[in-house]
Task: structure prediction
Amino acid sequence: MPDFSYIARDASGAKVTGTISAGSQREVLSILTGKSLFPIEVAAEKPAARLPLSGRVSGQMVATTYAQLAALIRNGVPLLKSIAVLRDQTSSKALKRVMQDIYERVEDGAALAEAMARHPKVFAETAVSMARAGGEGGFLEDALDRVSQFTEQQEDLKARTAGALAYPIFLAVVGTCVVTALLIFFVPNFEEMFARLRERGELPALTEALLWFSATVSSPAGLLIFLGILAGLFFGYLQMQTENGRWVRDTVLLRIPGLGHIVKRLAVARFCRVLGTLLGNGVPILRSLEISSGSTGNRVLSAAIEEASENISAGESLAAPLWSCGHFPSDVVEMISVAEEANTLDTVLIDIADGLEKRTTRRLDLAVRLLEPIMLLVLAVIVLLVVIALLLPVLKMSSTI
Result:
């Protein structure tokens, strides 16, 4: 989202300057009017230069930085000194460069959120918005604490998912390597042995298919097919980087039996947690919806949430458009509806996210546990078919003799 610098006057006529992140100049004018400011000049700022990083900063390290910065500020350490402390004590060269840039920006008078926004690969838009709200509302340490907790929960969920899928992926890679080695180095040795049976037309169909497949894989044509598959995968990857490609991918993911249910529930949980966290830190609901819509990681759900935000700006509730889109579970929509009436939307959204993540994680763990024996069974069946295809001709020759 671009930054706009503005010059305005308040009710007493004093000149006020600053920077606002917004989607358009019209939105900036609306924000300034809401603050009882009279705009004189609004101009889009040039994008800030991104500092090159010498390495990747992990999400867990960023979450720890949020928590430490909140603790320092809460205990009376000035913001600039707190940033310097974190810069000096970190062992990550990449994070040290980032904290040095933030220190210099804050020293020049910029707000913490503005300095953080210069590093989108390190600080998510959610964290920047919460830091901005905390700085403007005087609860910066609380905002940083909440974003630290949120980041840790997201990193834990990613780690559990990656850990659960590690063994099935390992099995798939090892199984593919074993079968490929059999087809290229082992099966061709039986070609001459079965030549007489093939001439007489007595070679079993399973063996014939195995020898043909082995010859294809071992030939230059097999290499061309392999390169073609790689090129197709690379082309598909490039297509996934486009807006249409992402839309198709996200639509297909939601429709895959079993997996679609898990993807949808996790996306809804992320949305609820981000929205609840932003609302709890004083971010206006329309701005919160704008940020949280991108946190789902799914274009289809993001579009539904953006449509819901348009309805809210027209005076409707949040629950009705979420229900009409058909992607949000009925129990989630019902809880949101009740929370809106009771004015407890921020806390209820966090509770919804906790419940969805726990239930979905259990379901994901069960699916992964079932995936492991299924992959072992598939690998065993493939190896068994290769063995049977090679033994059938041998048994036939033995019976003939």
